[in-house]
Amino acid sequence: MRAGTLNIWGPYRDAPNKYRLKISENGETRSICFRTYEEAELAKARLRDDIASQQVYTIGEAISQFCAHLAETRGIKAESVAWTAAQLEWLPENASLASINQEKAEKLYKELTVTPNPRTGKLLATATHHGRLGLARRLYEFAIKQDMCRNNPFASVTPIGRKRVGKPQLRIDEARRFEQKAIELAQAGDAAALGALLMLHLGLRQGEVAARIARDVDDEGRVLWVPSGKTKNARRRLKVPEVLRPLLLRQVEITPPGALLFYKGEKVPPTNYFWSQVRRLCHLAEVPAVCPHSLRGLHATLALEGGATADAVARALGHGSFSMTARHYASESSVDNAKATKVSSLLGGQGAADGPKSSGPDPDQILGLLKSLPAQQLAELLSKVSRSAE
Fold first, then answer.
1. Within a 10 A sphere around the Cβ of 59, how many other Cβ atoms?
2. N- or C-end of the chain: fewer Cβ atoms within 10 A?
3. Given 11, 36, 54, which residue is the final one in a domain?
4. What's the pLDDT tens digit per position in 233-271?
């Protein structure tokens, strides 16, 4: 444990009835012994409380140390650390950490949800204030580990409202107009437009597009390597659609092997770069403005609607399982349609497309899929099965 200039180690068991605490304060070290482990732990807690009561940390100091920890220990990028600090500005930086109890924490959070954003004049989105509440919890968890305070007043604060899962997506005709405009611009040398097309066609994250270099394009433009990414499942090799292959090859020809493909700078662009580029393309294509994350979700939706298996879509997006894909990316209807198709296949005795062949459908698998379908779609499916059996 560490608090200011005080360090405490132990308890150490020196003998059956001898437990020692080692204490270092202002460069001087001493030991205190106790008859039991419990007595030593109690004394350690009291010493910690005494120091904590003498040394008061403000929320602003805790935020500074938390951000330094993210940058130095966790290796978080500078722009992400700055964003984290900005998301914690709703907390009173001059108040002491210990002065915020659960009642005050709930009041602060409620005020956050009803206070308009000074930049937009609108209330914060539910997902945004949920995220800020989560960061406040993390801040206090960090402070407790650093012995800056004892309790986390935000731990039991209940998030207000239900956040919207997933992002609004373009309709199919809108997606076609978006693609047509992006291809037109990419043919004219617009690298950002080509990057946006990869998000739509391959389901890439904007960070994965931003980090791609020329040597990631392989096999004469047929393959795109993603050697690393947001999660351990992000590493993958993707097949490039033929419509994008000549555009990608031309971009590779004018780019050194180790240089970024879709950005002229030497460093990976900031996170808002492709956000603004996708918005620009939406405006030019005269379709509703969406974000890069939405193009990734649209890829999942269209892939499922086109007959791709759930596992294949999840792997293409770099997910460990389809549950993440279904919850945050693919539209609800496309997920339901994929389930219904699977049920129809099983009822027809075809079995899983990529699994071992069997003599008949698995009743438990059918029952599980049927239970997961909405009532209306379940009724329609059973009606079709009934008619086909007549």
1. 23
2. C
3. 54
4. 567 788 888 888 999 999 999 999 899 999 988 888 887
